[in-house]
Design brief:
With 341 residues, this protein is an alpha/beta fold. Strand 9 and strand 10 form a beta hairpin. Bound molecules: threonylcarbamoyladenylate and magnesium ion. The site of magnesium ion has 3 residues, from loops.
Length: 341
Amino acid sequence: METRVLKAGEGSEHPAISEAARLLRGGEVVAFPTETVYGLGANALNPAAVKKIYEAKGRPSTNPLIVHVASTDQARQLTTHWPDEAEVLARALWPGPLTLILKRRAEIPDLVSAGGDTVGLRMPRHPVALALIEKCGFPLAAPSANLSNYISPTTAAHVKKSLGGRIPMILDGGPSEGGIESTVLDLTREQPKILRPGIFSANFLEGILGKPIVLPAPAKDEMAEPVPQPLRSPGLLLTHYSPHTPFFLVKAGDLPVQLEKLSKNYPRLGLMPITAPGTWGLDYPFVEVKPMPAKAEPYARELYATLYQMDRGHLDAIICELPPDTLEWAGIQDRLRRAAR
Ligand code: TXA
Ligand code: MG
């Protein structure tokens, strides 16, 4: 299948957006930009269309999809219960990188919610995403537009690299400004619970809600390990968002020791430092050094593009400096730990 890349412009009458909507109406999948990462969309109310998402990504059908809406009203129509918390958060933060888990209406196909009785709803902030959903008139189920387990895309070129030949069209709306996926907040429990940390931190959401939020267990910490590990039970593997190149998370202070071990097995190394490499007291001939921002927001924006760039096959391994252990960095820490092996 040929994958067309069409540049999107302003407004729902833009020809590229009309073309994407035409395909989606016909039960096809289309990749489109959001402010977090690119999504692979299909009509959320059409099971045959949703099935194509799972097929294109190679995604296990046990992992539910987020449904994207263009308004709070549209979200309300997809759930049997719209609690006060949802109203408060949607008013404050939609459109934006926050997914709310709510009780689903029966119209939502089982395939979208992986057979569960809830649905994840989000109103994205990207003007192209909003225009597209409006033009379609139906909500769009959309996971990140990458092959299952690979790095999430923040540009149309990333999508093409991962899904080119497997989907009919990519709507190009420029680089995503958020950089990591939305915060997923479950509102169907006694206490709101973060299922996936993201751009909005728990602190920030608690401030808006005025009540405590339960945090997720952190993704398993897999620090640098010089000897390649045998594969553990696949069910326990957290290889989401992983580059193909081995990826090691290292505390700045541990770098000299880890570098000595790692460089024996992986001579061609890339480095993603936060603190200036000079202060690490190293003169290793890294093949590529990409200094990362010391603030969470710009770090998130650059993360996936950096991983795509580092994962071109020219490195034996990537060493990434572990960012600070604060709530602000929780979403980034989560993605990095999942990328690490
Ligand atoms: O920023 C984002 O959220 C991007 C853009 C495209 O909107 N989407 C995205 O989708 O990251 P995906 O499929 O890669 O991740 C969706 C996450 C998964 O961890 C999934 O398990 C969780 O949301 N999720 C979706 N529906 C759920 C539900 N009903 N209950 C619990 N978790 C749910
Ligand atoms: Mg994903």
